[in-house]
Amino acid sequence: MALCDECECYDDNWVDGEDITEEELEKDPLYEPHRYYYWHGDIQEDYQMPAGYDCLCERCFGDLLNLGKIITTDDAIWNPDEMGWFIPLEETHGT
Ligand SMILES: [Zn+2]
After folding, report:
1. How far is the CA of 16 from the centre of ligand 1 (A)?
2. pLDDT (tens digit per residue) in 10-21
3. Separation CA 62–CA 22 (nearest Å)
4. Tell me: the pLDDT tens digits for 22-75?
C-alpha cells in the first residue's frame, strides 16, 4: 500500500481489496497511481523524513526537501548510524 502522510493521495496498492470500482477511483482527486512513493520500511533509506512520516508521494517529498525538512545522504549532518529509518512521533500531548 502507498498512502502519502502529507496530502493523503494514494496508489493502486492502497485500494487492494477495497470495495471500490475503477470508475469511482478515477474520479477521486486523491488517487495518484503514477506518482512515485517514498517509504521508510524495513531497510535503511538514503533519506530521513520528519518524525511521524513513513510514506510520502514524490510531490510532498520534494516540497519537504525544499523546506529542509528531509535530510539526505548529500547533507553534511547525515548520520549513517541513526538516519534512514522511520522516526515515531513522540507523544507529547497529555490527555
Ligand atoms: Zn503527498
Report:
1. 19
2. 998 777 667 788
3. 28
4. 888 889 999 999 999 999 999 999 999 999 999 999 999 999 999 999 999 999
- At 25 the three-state DSSP class reads helix
- For residue 4 the three cell numbers come to 502519502
Query: How far, in Å, from the CA of 31 to the mean position of ligand 1?
Result: 11
Distance, in Å, from the CA atom of 56 to the CA atom of 8, rounded to the nearest integer, reads: 9
Please give the backbone phi and psi of residue 49, each rounded to the nearest 5 degrees, phi first.
-80, 160
Long-range contacts of 74-81 (CB under 8 A, 24+ apart): 78/48
Q: Are 88 and 52 in contact (CB under 8 A)?
A: yes
What's the CA dihedral at 89, 68, 73, 80 to 10 degrees? -30
Task: Report the pLDDT value the prediction gives residue 90, as an integer from 0 to 100.
Answer: 82
**17 CA to middle of ligand 1, Å?**
22
Q: Which residues neighbour 76 within 8 Å (Cβ) at sequence distance 6 or greater?
A: none
